[in-house]
TrEMBL record, chain A:
Pathway: Amino-acid biosynthesis; L-tryptophan biosynthesis; L-tryptophan from chorismate: step 5/5. NCBIfam families: trpB (TIGR00263). The beta subunit is responsible for the synthesis of L-tryptophan from indole and L-serine. GO terms for molecular function: tryptophan synthase activity. Belongs to the TrpB family. This is Tryptophan synthase beta chain. The lineage of its organism: Bacteria, Bacillati, Actinomycetota, Actinomycetes, Streptosporangiales. It comes from Nonomuraea aridisoli. Its EC number is 4.2.1.20.
From TrEMBL, chain B:
The active site is at E49, D60. The gene is trpA. This is Tryptophan synthase alpha chain. PANTHER family: TRYPTOPHAN SYNTHASE ALPHA CHAIN, CHLOROPLASTIC (PTHR43406:SF1), TRYPTOPHAN SYNTHASE, ALPHA CHAIN (PTHR43406). Transmembrane segments: none annotated. Tetramer of two alpha and two beta chains. It catalyses: (1S,2R)-1-C-(indol-3-yl)glycerol 3-phosphate + L-serine = D-glyceraldehyde 3-phosphate + L-tryptophan + H2O.
Amino acid sequence: MANEGSILTAADLVGNGPHGDDPDMHGKFGLFGGRFVPEALIPALDEVAAVYEKAKNDAEFLREFDHLLRTYAGRPTTLTDVRRFSEEAGGARIVLKREDLTHTGAHKINNVLGQALITKRLGKKRVIAETGAGQHGVATATAAALLGLECVIYMGAVDCERQALNVARMKLLGATVVPVTNGSQTLKDAINEAFRDWVTNVDTTHYLFGTVAGPHPFPEMVRDFARIIGVEARRQMLELTGRLPDAVCAAVGGGSNAIGAFHAFIGDEGVQLHGYEAAGRGLDSGEHALTLTAGSVGVLHGSRTYVLQDDEGQTIESHSISAGLDYPGVGPEHAWLKDSGRATYHGITDDEAMAAFSLLARTEGIIPAIESSHALAGALKLGRELGPEATILVNLSGRGDKDMGTAMKYFNL
Amino acid sequence: MTTLQTVFAKAKADNRAALVGYLPAGFPSKDGAIAAAAALVEAGCDVIEIGLPYSDPLLDGPTIQDAVHRALSNGTRIADVMRTVEGVAATGAATLVMTYWNPIDRYGAERFARDLANAGGVGTITPDLTPEESEPWREASAAAGIDTVFLVAPSSTEQRIKAVVDCCTGFVYAASLMGVTGARETVNAAAEGLVARTRQHTDLPVCVGLGVGTGAQAAEVAAYADGVIVGSAFIRRLLDAPDEAAGRESAAVLARDMAKGVRR
């Protein structure tokens, strides 16, 4: 993919093992994943799985996806060596994978373009999606505009207010934005509402799910479409430094940018994988999104995974200064990577993330998304642990333009 | 204790369909839910499904979402659900719990099945538990002697219908339409075909739910199904009434109309 003129291969999309890291036929990663959905949706999920299975081995599909990634999304994205920022990490060398430079400003575009092509193969003309901060909604509206699909975005009424700029962007792109007024009026309720739409309109509609959570085959398919992040970065790190990084760091909400960054490195035993969740106002405050670090195993939105829930299985509302990490569930493959010990997950507070946000802006002239700032803050800590010889790859999953309102308030700008 | 088997056998002997009513525990209040369900039984419901209020009811339309939200705001917990089952079962109606899977998963399958059986419950309906994931629950239910009801839908293939009915005991729940719970102007024409397709794979009673809101609709469904399931229409009456007693009476009026419907 990094080589000019090369075509994306099936191996780039799905990996070439043998990592034993694909889910079984029921979509299970060990105990996690599966399908916990109304029976009415099973045929649609089977259809998506079958169409995707065929597409990922089809040269024409790979060519189309590759073409869109290059000529529309702006891939491959570059690596940036951030020397001045690294000084704060005890001298460890931090290298950023610049997903912030993609069209629409975040890694979300990779998954969205892949699923928009799947939608056409399904013969469906309408897509629906959930969105929290609005990034997945904007990306979906963008791909729908490009491919001529009708687009409806479900967004919590609270989020619509917090992210009014993204609501305007989606409308400008021709999408209908439906504010969701039930429950906590945030991302989890937007997902509930999108599922209700899907079960009603499944004949004409594809649910363009935005992360590696949800029922099978979404965790696997979304991962595969995000996987290009790590595939490129692995190649680029070898070119830049002559070796693999000591660690890969990424922020984890639902988990798609992190899986995208991690997956190509899972077979590389010497490479540590670190995911950073939103610790919000701190674990003890109860206002956080520490699904993997402080949650328990349960079922949410169609999948068995770690969930923030009370002792009777009621979902607990999450909190993060970053809307994109403000989710009480997480993709099942992360649950599996956690339990197997292959990846390690940590919490980063709102304050730690905002400090890293500001530091990257001042030392490197790059304003990151607040989501990605959690990974940056994590890398600063990790660098001090690993020492000055270490090289750390950080997935800079998005840019911070959308976060100016939050930053103005937080820093009194 | 009245079992599902005796209910459906009796309805069949009377040459009619059974009437199944749904209400969530804790709505309009903890005691009000028991009183409302008792009023539905008095008015002619043969079976009562007690909903276990859950924070993320993704198969439910606005009416049930509203009721469930109120129940959770009332502080309704699983102990209250069990107490509701106990109160309703005491009226003589076969009483089930309808719940999303996660609350049972968290509570513990064996513990939930045992507690439900001890409360006089006869089984569960689990709308987001697929055959592939159902084995632990079916084992726990069998051990406790309670029935397991699962759903088939208009989109279900023959293979899926077979897989679902093979997991069911008591009856099979046929979702009349592709969509969420809630009363509709008409009952979807696909329901009759789905019931016929389901009967090719099982001798269990087949009950139709989703979108049934009037006595006339109940009569229409009773012509081809073994049971008619009504939820949102009763809840709407409770939501719209000025107080609990008036809501109960209004829901009972509708239940009497439905009970006539299933006997037409």
